[in-house]
Amino acid sequence: MPKARILAVDDQRYFRELIEGLLSDEGYEVQTASSGEEALHILEREDFEIIVTDLVMPGIDGSQLVKRIKERLPDQEIVMVTGVVDVKTAVEAMKQGATDYILKPFDRKTLACSLEKILQRRRLRDEHARLMTENLEFMSVLSLYERVTGLFSTLALRPLAERLIEGLCLETRAQGGVLWVVEDLEQSQVKLLSARGIIRVEEEPEELDITSIGEDFEKSILDGRSVVRSLARYGREGEALYVPLRHAGSLLGIARLSDKLDADSFDDRDRAAAERFVGFGAAAVVNALRFRSLERRSFRDPTTRAYTHAYFEDVVRNEIQKASRFGHRFSLIQLELAGVADMRRGCSEVQFTEWLQALVQQAGSALRSTDLLAIENEASYRVLLPETDALGAAVLKQRIRETIESSDLLAGQQSGCPLKLTLASATYPSDGTQLDMLARILLDRLEESRASMLTSLALAENPFAELLETLLERAEPEPPEVPEQIADFLLNDLARRPKDRGLLFVSPGSRLMPVVSAGVERLVECGAHVEVVLVAEKTHEIDGRAPITWVAPAALGTDRPFLFYFGDGPAYAMLTAHKSGDEGLGFFHTSDRMLVEHLVFQLQRDLGIPVKA
């Protein structure tokens, strides 16, 4: 009796005969098909334990065949055979349901080992199913097995976390659950990844400190034992069951379950059920983390080792889901280089490749460990900055620019073609909530940067006082009350957006001080995250609780009244100066984002005010 029936699908006769010969010698009954279409016709009338299919075929290729088979036969075991260059596509096929893949060229041992493992798992599953149907007392085990199967079929970390917390709530009849998980096998800090039921996500810690919960809690968790602890939340007392996810001696995550149905307490049965479930869950988390690591290695540009554009977009879409769920912000940076094509023509291929690698290395050295740098083409790159607002993105833009410009990579020494660097940033959700919206904002801001007054007037190297005078040459006469009205409007707008972080520099003079004083008090009352820097002599007119940095006007070398804001939301700058005669008040204002950013960060550097990324 044959070990199993195998259907081998390959458009090349050589490989069909090779697979048929190898597997027949191993005791399998083998049938072959020369195309995806033929394989589907055969499956309409015959059953097979395993299908072995090539990835690259004319007509219905291997990936499409997997999808078509899984739509009709969800439990069908499929092995993908592929060349090394097709690994990325094979991984995508596995996401659609392929059980395993084998790289060409392969030998008898590799193929037989893969099939034997699949059949072994199939035998175990079939044996479990038979036992469950024979004895009703094993129905709960079958239910657990089905949920665990769902865990192991999920390779993305966040959906897996959702399934884990859902399964734990079902096992323990908990109405609320939170799960903190490591995001890398090399990390030890657990981060909030999933929440379910009666939970206020915004009130949960993003990182869980296990030492803060109880004296013996840390020891129990590190030993792999679940713990019941009292829990005060939302103005009421209750209890929670904490369950550790451990694998090979390492802590991978912690689940907290609460609000058990009928106000019951968590008992030993709940603890045992939860620990049994997370035993499988921890193994599934390890698989997902290893798969993520494989994805990161597989989806890198072979020349620069930056991430590919396709992978970058997948990560950003996942970041959008995460940010939407947990109320986070994140930013994107676009880096464009003008003159790369001329440089390539002016140097050898080896020189250009070395320059390209050095560029990516320098840009990457300015980033944090959580940031992700991707290449669109040789002249265009994008950076993902998780949990970073517009102000933090501006800080990192400055750092990238300074790092690249200090390396002489833009000088074009080898080709004699100097390059020009342009950077732009966009922030979720203030600039957009979808990837295409954010991408459009980035491109628009690149164009705005190229057309900015900072560039057209070559103002970047000017001292601050001289820069103000240059801008005031473009001032227009306005009634004296206009600057006061604008200052009042801007401060009110910031008070309406208290969660937005930004830098506000104001040199009010005597005319704007009453408006600024009242506006700053409103910012204090609403708990706004705007950092205010007042260029004025310290006065008692402003509430002493206000988080204000006072700067003497002499420190800037100018007494011109101004107001600059940069951060989340629109950027804005205004300057005032009295003109002679009856022309009224000389007034200059702009929303030129690149110019405002330069003014704010030039002041920040001149005054030594720290800004966090």
- What's the architecture of the largest domain, going by CATH? 2-Layer Sandwich
Q: Give the total of domains.
A: 4
Query: What is the CATH C level class of the largest domain, in words?
Result: Alpha Beta
The tally of strands reads 22
Instruction: Name the CATH homologous superfamily of the largest domain.
Output: GAF domain
Number of helices: 19
Termini gap:
67 Å
**CATH fold name of the largest domain, please?**
Beta-Lactamase
Based on Cα principal axes, name the global outline: flat
Q: How much helical structure, as a percent, in the residues? A: 40-55%
The biggest sheet amounts to: 7 strands, mixed
From the helix content, strand content and strand pairing, which structural class follows? alpha/beta
Strand content: 15-25%
Low-confidence stretches: none
Task: Tell me the strand order in the biggest sheet.
Answer: 16-22-21-20-17-18-19
Rounded to the nearest angstrom, the radius of gyration is 31 Å
Question: Average pLDDT, to the nearest integer?
Answer: 85
Describe the structure.
The chain is an alpha/beta fold and 613 residues long. It folds into 4 domains: 5-131, Response regulator (Rossmann fold); 137-296, GAF domain (Beta-Lactamase); 309-451, Alpha-Beta Plaits (2-Layer Sandwich); 464-607, Endonuclease, Chain A. It contains 19 helices and 22 strands. Strands 16-22-21-20-17-18-19 form a 7-stranded mixed beta sheet, sandwiched between helices. Helix 7 (157-172) runs antiparallel to helix 9 (268-298). The radius of gyration is 31 Å and the shape is flat. The protein starts with a strand and ends in a 6-residue tail after the last helix. The model has no long low-confidence stretch (mean pLDDT 85).
